Amino acid sequence: MSGGERGTGTGAVVGRGRRIVLWRHGQTAWNLERRFQGSTDIELTPTGVAQARRAARLLAALRPDAIVASDLSRARATAAELAALTGLPVESDAALRETYAGVWQGLTHDEIIERHGAEYAAWKRGEPVRRGGGELETEVADRAAPVVLAQAGKLPDGGTLVVVSHGGTIRTTIGRLLGLEATSWEALGGLTNCCWSVLGEGARGWRLLEHNAGTLPEPVLGDDD
């Protein structure tokens, strides 16, 4: 490996000009109800399908080289819209699923605060919390970030990977690839349905080029699902 291609702590290789587009799935009924989905398999609404089709037209202009998606139906259906325009296959991977949140899954935001208020407050303070008895955010990054890096490693120089996943998983993956402390990942903010963030390679590894891009500002619904 030459000096110009020396690896960083995140596993990125400097100097190849690759991009990673992390795209959140379209709207679901549980998003509208502010109900925590987690790893529950909830399908897109008709609006969610329309969102995916609109976003896919924009993302197709980036001429992606590969698409990988969570195996949950809302992510696969979103990815399918881009695949239809680009002719690329979609590789599904369960490691890109949303955070498993145990007994929180299926509860509304208000119900979570009412029943698990202390746990919710601790999580918001940045403490390592197994929400609902489920996964830690760092464990989500442990499973998702290596998949993203492995897929990016297959890209040609200047290539683009589209990763179709979920709000919480995308945020933790970005935090891990940027080398941020886990307690600061929440500062990245949420993603609106069918919006995306873009990471590009810089001299020091991956850097955030865009966040929550794709539309004018809209309310973020159910950002951890």
TrEMBL record:
Q: Which residues are named in the active-site annotation?
A: 25, 98
Q: Which GO terms describe its cellular component?
A: cytoplasm
User: What Gene Ontology molecular-function terms does this entry list?
Assistant: phosphatase activity
Which positions bind substrate? 24-31, 74
- Per the record, the domain of life is Bacteria
Q: Which PANTHER family match?
A: BROAD-SPECIFICITY PHOSPHATASE YOR283W-RELATED, GLUCOSYL-3-PHOSPHOGLYCERATE PHOSPHATASE
Name this protein carries in UniProt = Phosphoglycerate mutase
Q: What species is this protein from?
A: Streptomyces eurocidicus (Streptoverticillium eurocidicus)
